[in-house]
Amino acid sequence: MAMSEADVERARAARLSEDDVVGVLLDQHARIRDLFAEVRTGTGEDKRQAFDELRALLAVHETAEEMVVRPVTKKVDKSVAAARNEEEDKAGRVLRELGKMDLDSAEFARKLTDLERSVSAHAEHEESEEFPRVRAARDEHQLEGMGRKLHAAEKVAPTHPHPSTAGSPAAQWTVGPVVSAVDRARDAMR
Length: 190
Known about the structure:
- Helix content is about 80%, strand content about 0%.
- By secondary structure, it is mainly α.
- The longest helix is centred in the first third of the chain and has 33 residues, at about 45-75.
- The protein starts with a helix and ends with a helix.
């Protein structure tokens, strides 16, 4: 039986140290793929919970990447960094629209499919273009430090997409913790 893309990402991550930033992100890419499948096949409250987890993971993941990984990428290849930021900005806008829709509507299903395709393509671009550049620019100790910094950034990252801060690590570090507190309070009230 062939391995799914998520299984391949998990296997690649397992070959890296626990804190290696690329390994952490590969594990998250795998979980994002799993969550898309859960939302597609889920019903009722299970579908809502899967979507809420997907939305939060995508928002946190993208914010943390912009705060920790993208500055390194930008030093190595500005065009790759700009392309990944643009993809994340577009995905964040669609994710925000999806959050306002009826999860059982045909329009939601169509937009979710489109988002899944774009997020999958984005992950493939990161894995084939961005991650190799980051790995080449940093030694193992630095990659592990980036992984720990990524985990710290995730703790203060918003759990909902906020396109106004997309692509700006400074805005993410400055505004992110405040917006995150609001998002997390809103999530808790649901």
